[in-house]
Amino acid sequence: MDVKENLAQNLIMFRKSVNLTQAELALKLNYSDKAVSKWERGESVPDLAVLKQIADFYGTTIDTLISEPKEAKPKHQRNLGKKRCIIALCSAGLVWLVATVFFTFASLIFPTITETWLAFIYAIPVTLIVLLVLTSVWGKTLFNSICTSLLVWTIILAVYLTLINTLINPPVALWMVFLIGIPLQILTILWFSYKKIK
Asked: Residue 99: which residues within 8 A CB-CB, separation 6 or more?
């Protein structure tokens, strides 16, 4: 395989690893998408300055770009997991901040209501919904299935605790609301098994 072919394959691999189209990459490099297309087809080679710019963009070296293609992930891809983790933690933190603010002000404004602590119980399923949305966008199927399962059970728990603490005479069999979770859990497992098969 010659240098042009190596470069073409590496450019395609690196671009796809950061989920960019040729047009998006061209925009970032201040080049036309036609030029990027020609580079990726091996019809032309970018000049040395542009090659250096591309290598810096992907967090690699010119030598790597022109060498035999490897399945190594560029720095953008390696750091993606860390960035997503920080985004998820910040999003969850915002949910808990809102729950804390609600708890604090509700406790101050309505001191006779003792159930304000339920704000923290409801923060659990809300956190899971936020994480579920983020991981759905990021395509993390296993984490989605775990979040969905936890969401089902935490919503049931929140409803149970709300009823137990707000009803004057809660029924003894109120625990039976947890039975609703069993078919929902089975459906969740079946749904994610079906998605995995597809």
From this structure: 119, 120, 122, 123, 126
Token pair 């690196």: residue: 14
Q: How far apart are CA 25 and CA 141, in angstroms?
A: 28
Max Cα–Cα distance, the chain, nearest Å = 81
**pTM of structure:** 0.58
Query: 3-state DSSP call for residue 114?
Result: coil
Query: At residue 2, what are phi and psi to the nearest 5 degrees?
Result: -90, 175
Tokens of 58: 């992907």
**Tens-place pLDDT, residues 150-189:** 999 999 999 999 999 888 888 888 999 999 999 999 998 8
Dist CA 31 CA 49 (whole Å): 13
What's the one-letter identity of residue 137?
Answer: V
Q: Are 192 and 184 in contact (CB under 8 A)?
A: no
In this predicted structure, the answer to whether residue 149 has a pLDDT above a threshold of 60 is yes
